[in-house]
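Q: I'm writing up a methods section and want to include an example of the input and output format. Could you take the sequence below and give the corresponding predicted structure tokens, formatted cleanly so I can copy it straight into the document?
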Amino acid sequence: MIPSGRALWLLLLLLCVAVVAVRGERMTGGFQKLSRNNAEVQEIVAQAMQKLNDESDSPTWQKADRVVRAKSQVVSGIRYLITVKLRETNCPKSQSPDDCSTYNSVNAGKSMVCELDIWSQPWMDFLRVLKKCPQ
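A: Here is the clean output for your methods example:
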């Protein structure tokens, strides 16, 4: 039995996907893992936390203590999915974090692991941040 033209193309496509997966290369448009200590990751987390704090009704600052994992995807800009350990600090927003003695104390305040979905278009001065944390 000779495969039809459509079936042959499907078989060829599946073969290409399998070869890329086996070789460990990422597919165009797919997510790329980033190092937790990458300067780009640290900078985008700082920008995201500033935006979240500015838009939050919480009376205290939130702080990202640690990046757990990060990945990015080239879209119309860059989309980041970053898992962070966040902490509700005891520092009131009426006070600068630099003036709060417990701001950098990892043991002060409630901690949680959250997923940040960040879309950045720097040439448009655009940053959208969605935060998903366990209840």
